[in-house]
Amino acid sequence: MKKISVIIVNYNTKDILKQCLTNLLNIMSSLQIIVVDNGSNDGSYNMLKKDFPNVVAIKSKNQGIAKGYNKALKKAQGDYYLFLGTDAFPTKKSLVGIVTYMENHSNVGVCTAKLVLRDGTLDMDAHRGFPTPLAAITHFSRLNRLFPHSKFFNKYFLGYKNMAKPHQIDLCISHFMFVKNKVFNDVKMWDEDFFVFGEDVDFCYRVKQNGWKIMYLPQFEVLHLKGVSVGIRKSSGDITTASKKTKSNMRKHTTLAMELFYKKHYQNKYPKIITLLILFGIKVLSWLRV
Predict the structure, then answer these.
(1) Count: domains in the chain
(2) pLDDT confidence tier of residue 198, bands split at 50, 70 and 90
(3) Is residue 134 part of a domain?
(4) What is the pLDDT of residue 105?
């Protein structure tokens, strides 16, 4: 079995983090687990040092999730890196199965599993297309809800794909993202300009640019509580401990990430009028969310 380094960035989710780590150690004792605590004030770091002495604990200022990932990568020793949210709970079957799949497919650089929310529905953020202007417009206008299986109207969640079989996707969220360590020879580090949100979109974009495949493997299922640390997701609204200030900041960062990604990857790819319309739309969305 190839070695897996599990990389977690934590912010004020002490109790959920403890459950997450307990689950990981119960299913596979050989994991290298690295936790970067991003300036938590809920006792997370002290809990880590006391209750999980074999976990690599890194105390840090809150400089964003991408910065945290990069700090952890300097300590990672695995053949595979699993970027994991504190609110995600994989099984042994999912870890072993995905590594086996990736070992047998040399051109696959990133994999994710079928992420399932507490109510049994799919977390579609693990099954995404790139946010091109068309994909974004049909998503935020909710046309993709009217035509969920349309290749034209639902590029955002790739609703036309067969969800029961393994297939390529454009991107997945970093709350359960398996990455071959070789990928970083091409992609280098996470882009630290993304504080929170969008870091995984940017990372996957660069992975695909370098010729690697990204696969969705629905035969492996992972429970995802979703959004416990950011506090703005309906799926975890009853269990999050995020403060009002944190929730407000997170809403702002959702649209800041959109703008950053568009300017980095799409601004010079589309006509100026399209760019102006998209950036204006992002600005309007930011006003609505605040």
Answers:
(1) 1
(2) very high
(3) no
(4) 98
